[in-house]
Write a structure and sequence with these properties.
With 303 residues, the chain is mainly α. The protein is built from 11 helices and 2 strands. A two-stranded antiparallel ribbon has the order 1-2. It starts with a helix and ends in a 6-residue tail after the last helix.
Length: 303
């Protein structure tokens, strides 16, 4: 039997896993929207995620330090700039880099996406004069779920807001795919783009819409994650992008909802490992588990 303190610790770690699980789920959902259509691994969503976070921090600092705005107004300026610049970058990269490469050598998209990540991160680093910028904490009021005398179970307001918002975005997206005309078109193109075209579905338009939604989800996730963590760097974008790509490869890429669920479970397992096992081995253990699952779940196509 667990003591009250051990139970409180377990509940606290479960709550700590919620923001991470919601973030992974949101990123996996957005990534799978495009992957189900292109059938190519792509780290660009991870690059856009990190880029949005860095732009958010930069413009928030600019609005607060240079324009002398109050902090909520500076945050609004930063979030608006992050989403706008990320969507603009996604449109330029998709039109000038990804689409030409996809026609010539689809496998080169993987390498190009890593290069894009480095370029985007360096652009923000140069704009910030190579300074590490951090957000001042906000919405950090503690919400108590269990007032245990020795170990209160709490989350901050920003954690709760992020979990609720990200979960709502995933559920709304899943509902649109399941019940709307746009969702039916997306499923048709995902199953067979040529057959969908013969039935009057504009496969090109569906692909462009999916890419824009993926970019928008990456941008919003970047802003929310940065609001929670306080900063964003190149390594974070690479790690999140790699994890999402591997999680989506294991699951059913044609079902964004299932990919989101798998990503959420991965976030829960990752947090619990850090809580009960040696933290230094966490990433090695989790990535090894992903590789093993990828091998076990791999399906061969019979020609």
């Amino acid at each position: 039997m667990l003591s009250d303190t051990q139970l409180a610790y377990f509940l606290q770690q479960s709550l700590n896993a919620a923001p991470v699980a919601a973030l992974y789920a949101m990123l996996a959902f957005g990534y799978s929207l495009s992957f189900a259509l292109t059938k190519r691994a792509d780290f660009t969503p991870g690059a856009l995620f990190a880029f949005a976070g860095q732009v958010f921090v930069y413009f928030t600092a600019f609005g607060y330090d240079r324009l002398w705005l109050i902090y909520p107004a500076a945050l609004a300026i930063g979030a608006t700039a992050a989403i706008t610049y990320t969507l603009l970058a996604a449109a330029i990269v998709g039109d000038k880099v990804i689409r030409p490469l996809a026609r010539i050598s689809p496998n080169s998209v993987i390498t190009a996406s890593l290069a894009i990540m480095i370029v985007l991160m360096e652009l923000v680093r140069i704009a910030a004069s190579a300074k590490d910028l951090w957000l001042s904490p906000f919405l950090n009021t503690r919400i108590t779920f269990w007032a245990h005398p020795g170990f209160p179970v709490v989350l901050t307001a920003i954690q709760v807001i992020n979990v609720v918002s990200m979960t709502a975005i995933v559920l709304l997206g899943a509902a649109v795919l399941a019940y709307s005309k746009q969702g039916r078109n997306w499923r048709a193109v995902s199953d067979d783009a040529f057959a969908a075209t013969l039935l009057g579905v504009d496969a090109g338009r569906v692909l462009v819409a999916a890419a824009l939604i993926t970019a928008a989800i990456s941008a919003v996730a970047g802003v929310m994650a940065t609001s929670y963590y306080g900063s964003m760097d190149f390594g974070a974008g690479l790690m999140f992008g790699l994890k999402v790509v591997m999680i989506a490869a294991i699951g059913d890429q044609s079902s964004p909802a299932k990919c989101a669920l798998g990503a959420a479970l991965y976030g829960l397992a990752e947090t619990m490992w850090g809580a009960y096992m040696p933290y230094v081995w966490r990433d090695l253990a989790m990535f090894s588990g992903l590789v093993i699952l990828a091998v076990v779940a791999r399906q061969e196509r019979r020609v």
